[in-house]
């Protein structure tokens, strides 16, 4: 399934009838089973319904870092992002991609 950023934003955990999605490097993961983390009030709720690549690479929960932009990340931050992506691949199903 393909999602625009606007469509992805509807899967942010605020509507209990919808799954919760987080994107990493454009791949959309269904993180609904991690609702306690990504759902409303969860420690990582700011990532829900967004591409959180930059924030994950920087190990940041700052709203301004929750972005798909990774061009200027350091090699260490890219490695961190890749580690997060591997963790998500093991734990959560991929349901689509973010398109522009």
From TrEMBL:
The keyword Repressor does not apply. Residues 3-99 form the Cytochrome b5 heme-binding domain. One of its GO terms (molecular function) is steroid binding. InterPro entries: Cyt_B5-like_heme/steroid-bd, Cyt_B5-like_heme/steroid_sf, MAPR/NEUFC/NENF-like. SUPFAM superfamilies: Cytochrome b5-like heme/steroid binding domain. Transmembrane segments: none annotated. SMART domains: Cyt-b5. Pfam families: Cyt-b5. The keyword Ribosomal protein does not apply. Keywords: Lipid-binding, Steroid-binding. One of its GO terms (cellular component) is endomembrane system. Belongs to the cytochrome b5 family. MAPR subfamily. This is Cytochrome b5 heme-binding domain-containing protein. It comes from Arabis alpina.
